[in-house]
Amino acid sequence: MIHLLILLAAFTGPDPAPALQAVRTCDRAAMMAMTKAEPRRRAEWAAAAYTEQQAIARERAALLAPTAVPATPAGKATTDLALSALDARQKQLDDARAVEMSWRTLMDELRADFLANCAPTKGWKD
User: Fold this and answer.
1) CA distances from 78 to 1, 59, 63 (A)
2) How many distinct helices (H) and strands (E) make up the chain?
3) Residue 12's CB: how many other CB atoms inside 10 A?
4) How crowded is residue 95: how many other Cβ atoms within 10 Å of its Cβ?
């Protein structure tokens, strides 16, 4: 569940303003810093997403195991509530993945824009 906190930060995603400004001003140093930091950020995000997905799968499997089937209506209600909570976590993770993929697309497009429009002959700002 701790990793979910990391993923919740992904709902807003990284702030695009610095990247957009770096491209607008052809700020080579800023683009280099962001480009260098991006693989680490992506790796940390992927590790958190993997850990959360693994936890959801493990908890769902435990709830649905044949030995975990409740014999009473109250037990079934408890199981149903737990499964609903897992479904909500899965939806949050899916939303976080969608935001992450949108960020990656934006960064790829900004890099392409920077490379196409901020050639050294156009006067990089260092």
Assistant:
1) 19, 14, 10
2) 4, 0
3) 8
4) 14
Give residue-wise pLDDT tens across range 60-85: 999 888 776 667 888 788 888 999 99
Tokens at 41, concatenated? 């950020």
d(CA 3, CA 10): 11
- Show the tokens assigned to 111: 């890099």
CA distance 44 to 47: 5
Cβ atoms of 28 and 116 within 8 Å: the answer is no
Spatial distance between the Cα atoms of 58 and 67, rounded to a whole number of angstroms: 15
Residue 98's identity, in one-letter code, is A
Q: Which helix (H) or strand (E) holds 25?
A: none
